[in-house]
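Notes from hallway chat w/ T.B., transcribed later so I don't forget. T.B. wanted the structure written out for a chain they're using in a teaching module, and asked if we could keep both sequence and structure tokens in one place. Agreed to drop them here.
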Amino acid sequence: MSSTFGTLYRVSTFGESHGKAVGAIVDGCPANLQLTEEDIQSQLTRRRPGQSDMTTPRDEADRVTILSGCENGKTLGTPIGLMVNNRDQRPGDYQEMSQVPRPSHADFTYQHKYGNRAASGGGRSSARETIGRVAAGAIAEKWLREQFGTEIVSWVSTVGDIDAPDLSEEILSREDVDGNLIRCPDQSVANQMMDLVATTRDRQDSVGGVLTCVARGVPVGLGEPVFERLEAKLAQAMLSIPATKGFEIGSGFAGSRMFGSAHNDPFQMKKGGRLGTSTNHSGGVQGGISNGEPLVFRIAFKPPATIGQAQQTASFDGEPTVLEAKGRHDPCVVPRAVPIVETMTAMTLMDFVLCQSYRNAGR
């Protein structure tokens, strides 16, 4: 079950980066949701390669096909099959690297775990695997939006050592985020980030970054303590994305430097007669359960492992060698990771909503 995520909204992804196709099987989606391929395509288009010189030049349209689970534009309640063909495959780009584990890549660990691996492009460890997640998560986004008005927006808040101001209390739209190629809503900072990525790309190097994600309109009561806490499942979802190295929610690590008198979130009556908190250092989760405030969390992405610079390393048999990677790779993954984070958030929330509905039905 290592390729399956979720309890009641279950998503299993399939495919390798240079195989014939990638995709997902979605089990547990309720019947009668209005759904077409265009509902899914918008997030896949935001994720796809070749969007700009900020990303890999691999040219893939990433058009999704719904294979099953829908009829006459509505879900049937049966498993939904989703597939995206790989068209711009170049496995030959990786032939010279077949005997050399790429530094900080998954070649070495996959080979030792399975005794075999997909030598072209990283196989299942490639970010191309996330196509299935994005397609499945786009369905969850639509369902959550229609049921609860939930809106999930992520953006680039850091590239390298360049930080954008904290925008988590602003009500941002995806149009705001997509206003520039780096997907940072602060245009002046975005220009600095794009200059850094361009400079990094030109010297055949890579750079990391941080995404911030905010989910508004999240129902109260989501989360299954103690081991299935909402923030724990979100962390699992985010850290399962390739290249992630860190997760924090609410005040995160900065909260460890605060006193309780400053960190506590006092309750107050809000508009509409809803009890809520005046601050949100908890990031929308208390005791592992959503409290109705916006979910606010951040995810750290490392620099992409494959770079064009020559690197001193060793082959699988231990012989010293110099590796100069070929192929087409992102100098920075965070702009394309935005829809991945959003859709993984949606999958997590929808699964918890269905679990809570099941719990309530037994009362």
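Follow-up for T.B.: The chain has one domain: 4-361. Might be a good example for the class.
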